[in-house]
Specification:
Alpha-D-Glucose-1,6-Bisphosphate, Chain A, domain 4, 172 residues
C-alpha cells in the first residue's frame, strides 16, 4: 500500500469546499498537472456514482486510471475508488478529508492511494507516487486560489464527457 498525501487550509466554509469537490468534473480545473486527458463517464458529474477516466502521467508508458465517486459524507469525506496500472489490475483510492477549523476556514487533506499486488506493479507504483507527491501541493494551492477567488488564479478547462459531441443538439 502506497499513498501520496497533501494538506492545505482554505479560507472558505466547509460546505462550499465540499460542494466543489463533490463534482468530479472539477478535478482538471484545480489539478491539470495531475489529471491529464480527463473524461467523464456520464453527463451527471456530481454525487455518488459519478466517474471519470484519465491519464495520471506521461512517460514511456501512459498510466491510465478510472475512478468512481463511491462515498460522500457531507462536510467530512469524499471517496473515489477505481483502478490503474496495466489492465486495471492495481486498485486505486482517492480521498478528500475535510475538517472545519475554528474561525471558519476548512482544512483539506487529499490522499491518493494504490495497492499493487505483484512485484513489478510495486516497483512502478513507487515511482508513480513520487511523481504524484511532487504535483499535489501545487494542485491544492490552485484549489485554494479558485475557491478563495484569487484574481491571478484561473480555473483550468472543465471536463468533457467521453464520446459526447459538444455540438450535438438532440431534437432541435
Amino acid at each position: 500500500m502506497r499513498a501520496a498525501r497533501a494538506k492545505i487550509t482554505i479560507d472558505r466554509p466547509i460546505d462550499d469546499v465540499y460542494e466543489y469537490l463533490l463534482d468530479i468534473g472539477t478535478r482538471p480545473e484545480f489539478a491539470p498537472n495531475v489529471f491529464l486527458d480527463f473524461r467523464l463517464s456520464r453527463v451527471e458529474s456530481k454525487g455518488v456514482g459519478a466517474g471519470a477516466r484519465y491519464r495520471l502521467h506521461r512517460k514511456l508508458r501512459d498510466r491510465y486510471a478510472g475512478t468512481t465517486l463511491t462515498e460522500a459524507v457531507p462536510g467530512e469525506r469524499i471517496l473515489e475508488e477505481g483502478s490503474t496500472g496495466r489492465g486495471g489490475r492495481v486498485p486505486l483510492a482517492i480521498e478528500y478529508l475535510l475538517e472545519e477549523l475554528p474561525g471558519g476556514p476548512t482544512k483539506v487533506e487529499w490522499t491518493i492511494e494504490s495497492h499493487p499486488l505483484n512485484l513489478v506493479d510495486q516497483i512502478r507504483e513507487f515511482r508513480f507516487h513520487a511523481k504524484i507527491r511532487r504535483k499535489m501541493p501545487s494542485a491544492l494551492r490552485r484549489l485554494r486560489g479558485i475557491l478563495e477567488q484569487t484574481p491571478n488564479v484561473s480555473p483550468g478547462e472543465r471536463a468533457t464527457v467521453a464520446g459526447l459531441d459538444s455540438n450535438y443538439v438532440p431534437n432541435p
